[in-house]
Write a structure and sequence with these properties.
With about 150 residues, the chain is α/β, with parallel strands linked by helices. Helix 1 crosses helix 2. It is globular.
Length: about 150
């Protein structure tokens, strides 16, 4: 075990329950509400963490539109009751969005940029048609395989 104080460690985790697709238990629940409940659960279990000490909330999300639009992470933090001073950012790296969010937090910790991060992600595929509003350049089809696009499209 390392004793480096700049090591990034995962202290706790939470997730929503699994629901069936379009007609499942979360069919009437928004993506930001699901995410906020996860953050509330983490904070309730980790009362030693002062919410004001959170350096950033980083949330992965591919389809950043409609209920998942704008800066979803900011709305998640505010809905979860985090202080207004806690910044938030939403990351899109397709299916690796949440992992990229975790990499960003870990890199920031190791670089001394911050100490406490909440990281997660959401994609409410039952609410958002993954192809709605997507208009890939037709020229790409000449040289790029369709599988190179959003996994919700393939």
């Amino acid at each position: 075990m390392s004793t480096n104080p700049r090591d990034a460690v995962i202290v706790d985790f939470a997730r929503t329950a699994m629901g069936r697709s379009k007609n499942g238990c979360f069919r009437n629940t928004r993506a930001d509400e699901l995410s906020a409940e996860v953050v509330k659960g983490l904070m309730a279990r980790n009362t030693a963490v002062d919410p004001a000490s959170i350096d950033d909330l980083i949330w992965g999300c591919v389809m950043q539109r409609e209920e998942q639009g704008f800066n979803l992470a900011r709305f998640v933090g505010l809905s979860a009751g985090l202080p207004h001073e806690v910044p938030a950012q939403t990351v899109n790296r397709l299916c690796g969005s949440s992992m990229s969010a975790m990499h960003t937090a870990a890199a920031n910790i190791m670089a001394g940029i911050g100490d406490v991060y909440i990281v997660g992600g959401v994609e409410h595929m039952g609410h958002l048609d993954m192809n709605k509003g997507v208009d890939p350049n037709p020229e790409l089809g000449l040289s790029v395989a369709k599988a190179a696009g959003s996994m919700g499209m393939t």
